Amino acid sequence: xxxxxTYYIGEQSLIFPKDVYIISSASVVGKKEGEGPLKDAFxxxxxxxxxxxxxxxxxxxxxxxxxxxxxxxxxxxxxxDIRYLFAGDLLGQNMATxxxxxxxxxxxxxxxxxxxxxxxxxxxxxxxxxAGYAPKVAAVTSSHFASAEKQFRYPLEYANQRPVSxxxxxxxxxxxxxxxxxxxxxxxxxxxxxIVDMGxxxxxxxxxxxxxxxxxxxxxxxxxxKRTPEDxxxxxxxxxxxxxxxxxxxxxxxxxxxxxxxxxxxxxxIFDKEKQGTGSGGSGCGCSAVTLSAHYLPMLEExxxxxxLFVPTGALLSTVSFNEGxxxxxxxxxIVLEHVED
Length: 342
Prior knowledge:
By secondary structure, the chain is α/β, with parallel strands linked by helices. The chain has 10 helices and 16 strands.
């Protein structure tokens, strides 16, 4: 590098000095996810949502541990082959990540971006490989319905009634191995999101809270890369659900951007809301991660999809901020994924 090259694009995006590829991934989910539309695509489905553990939090740690093991196994790698881990979850102090991955003894960057963490982890992992700081890194994220309900809403024993606007936190973990070695899917660029707060205070309507951040991110990605929605085979949001999908399409149309023909949402894909009673759809760190691994990456690898914009979305609330009457800010991160010809 001569020192004159720049890799930042527009206001919030960048490309990489070196090519970055996803060389393997894995998805591990719980019983409900294994009964949904993607049941045949997941790598592991466990009928026991405690995964043999004593607590919901330990169960979520097990999710991450198994997902990373499977992803490394597919790539024929050992822990010592992975230079860094970029990982996170929804729990306080990232404890699912800490207890789930510590036994691998791989240097860890612990991350929190709420349900956008899959996008944040893939972004930072790709920057690390693309800059030449590591030959191989892993990005891991997880969520668990019971541990999330316990922390953010009500313990399961409370048996509260859920409004139709509520999303169902996915029990699942997705792990991705990134490398500079050529693979079938390339991360060709990223767009990093800003915090967007429209004053939503309903913790049971995450789609409405997160949708404005996704709108901001998608519009910025298109501007930065000088693209139109039609330049992507799919624009895939993480967990907006049915309500959030309506909002994002309407808000973008007001900016004269129509994504209705290419938009899909992981939270809509992962559950059958009528048969499974999942309200507005799926959510959680694990939602976008397992859906990307199980559903979208295989289509990119096969060339069914040539280029997608993957946009996990997050609601940046905590029990403290919510109980103090604060609003629910949102954030989104964009990853451009492309099929690589042989």
